[in-house]
Structures are given as structure tokens and as C-alpha cells.
Amino acid sequence: MLERTEPRKSSNGAAKASNGAEKAVPIFNTQAFLDSAGVAKTVANYRRGETIFTQGDACEHVMYIQAGGVKLSVLSKTSREAVLAMLGPGEFFGEGCLAGQPLRMGTATAIIPSTILLVDKEKMVQVLHKQHAMSDRFIAHMLARNIRIEEDLIDQLFNSSEKRLARALLLLARYGKQDKPARVVPQISQETLAEMIGTTHSRVNFFLNKFKKLGFIDYNGDLPLKINSSLLSVVLHD
Q1: Spatial distance between the Cα atoms of 125 and 62, rounded to a whole number of angstroms
Q2: pLDDT classification of 238: cutoffs 50, 70, 90
Q3: How many Å apart are CA 48 and CA 110, to the nearest integer?
Q4: Which of 83, 37, 82 has its CA nearest to residue 64?
Q5: Cβ contact 117:38 at 8 Å
Q6: Is 29 within 8 Å of 1 (Cβ atoms)?
Q7: What is the Cα–Cα distance from 163 to 169, expressed in whole angstroms?
């Protein structure tokens, strides 16, 4: 099946069409499409901390996260690492090869045990040209990624490290991504959190303990931790 259906809600909130009967709304299922489209692909499993590709590697595949989580980072000439993004299930990465990028500009690492679908770049181009539903889904993904990058830049430039940490925890827990999100942050190190928000390990530790005392997170001094919806107040507070 390439689609799942959900009832369309009317203006009064009821799941009814104009004639009073329920009407199904198709929602594109990327995973199901990739599984059935005859695309040349490989499924690979990675352990926590295992490298998926390294900065400077040849760009040969577009990748799709079936399960797990991935950290994208870059390394400077002075060996300083900057974390660009933390990605979760249902997200693409490594798509630079579609724009003619010959080498990987950064490194991708599994932050938890992960299952990754590797799609040959030539086959991916063919699918995007021929299958409009997939093309639309992929364009939407890229636009959402660009918006996220802009939001991350604004966050780094204008928000305090405390607010940046709260936002990072909410994003890592995929807050708002599901009907019933797990609210659990993957088991990543405080050093990685510090790299993500541009601060020190000691500051991250200080704020985590502060959030715990305020009841924003359930935390026993180590990750993974569970966030509470009240953590949003840190992000929304001016």
C-alpha cells in the first residue's frame, strides 16, 4: 500500500464530508513508495556511534532513515567539529549528490542503532523525474530542511544557550512529529549537545540539572532523558 487514509474534518471538527459521510484523505507514504517503486536500494544497519559516511567520501547514494537517528557534522581544518543537524525516522540525508556534489561535505554518524535505506543516486533521479508524488514529497522535505536551517541559525544568533538547549531537546525528542511522541531524547552525550548549541559541557550539565529541578525533564544525571511539555515554556519565554 502506498497510501493510508484519515478522515477529513469538517468546519465543526467532525470527520464528515459535505454529504454527511466520512471521506478519506490520501497521505503519501514515502517508505511504502520506496519499498514498491523498484528502486535499486540497499538496507544497512549501523550501531550507535558508527560512521555512515565520512567527510570527503564519494557521493553515491541518497539515504533515508527507516529507524534510529543520525548526526550530521563537519570538521574544520583545525579539527573542530560542528554539528549541523540531528535527523530521525522518515528523513532523507546525503541528497547533495543529486545536485552534482562529488564528495561528502560532512560526516554522518548513527547516534542510536539505526536502519538506513541507501538509494543509488541515478535511480533516485529517475524516480523523481517519473513519479510526481515522490518528487513533491522530496521537494517538501528539502523546503522543510531549509526552514529548519534558517531557524537553527536564528537560534544560534539571538537566543541564550539555555533556550538553545531546550529547543534542541524538544527537536531530538521529535516533539510534535507524532500523535503520541515518545518524549524521549536519544542517548547522546552532553558533549554532543554542547556542540549542537555552541556552548560548553559544563553549561549543558548546569542547565539539565536546572530543568530537572523545575520539572521540565525527567533526568537521573545521564541520557537518555524524558522531556515534559512544560519545557516549551523555556523556548517560548522572551
Answers
A1: 10
A2: low
A3: 5
A4: 37
A5: no
A6: yes
A7: 10
Integer CA distances (angstroms), 78 to 75, 81, 195, in order: 8, 9, 15
The angle subtended at Cα 87 by Cα 192 and Cα 187, nearest 5°, is: 45
Domains (ranges, CATH) in the chain? Answer: 3-33 (no CATH), 38-156 (2.60.120.10), 159-236 (1.10.10.10)
Task: Provide the whole-model pTM.
Answer: 0.72
Nearest to 91 by CA among 108, 59, 116: 116
Q: Collapse the DSSP code of 11 into the 3-class scheme (helix H, G, I; strand E, B; otherwise coil) and give the result.
A: coil
Please report, for residues 35, 74, 184, the alpha-carbon distance to residue 56 in angstroms, rounded to integers and kept in the order given: 29, 10, 33
Question: Is the C-alpha dihedral spanning 146, 154, 75, 225 positive or negative?
Answer: negative
- The string over 34-44, giving b where at least 16 C-beta atoms fall within 10 Å of a residue's C-beta and e elsewhere, is beebebebeee
Cross-strand pairs, 107: 73
Residue 90 — left, alpha, or beta (φ > 0 → left; ψ -120 to 50 → alpha)?
A: left
User: Contact, 172 vs 186, CB < 8 A?
Assistant: yes
Under the banding of pLDDT at 50, 70 and 90, the label for residue 107 is: very high
Does the structure show a pLDDT above 50 at 26?
no
User: What's the rounded Cα separation, in Å, for the pair 181 and 174?
Assistant: 7
DSSP 148-214: HHHHHHHHHHHS-HHHHHHHHHHHHTTTTSSSS---EE-S--HHHHHHHHTS-HHHHHHHHHHHHHT
> Under a CB-based contact definition with an 8 Å cutoff, are residues 45 and 114 in contact?
yes
Residue in this structure with the C-alpha cell 548546569, named with its chain if needed: 206
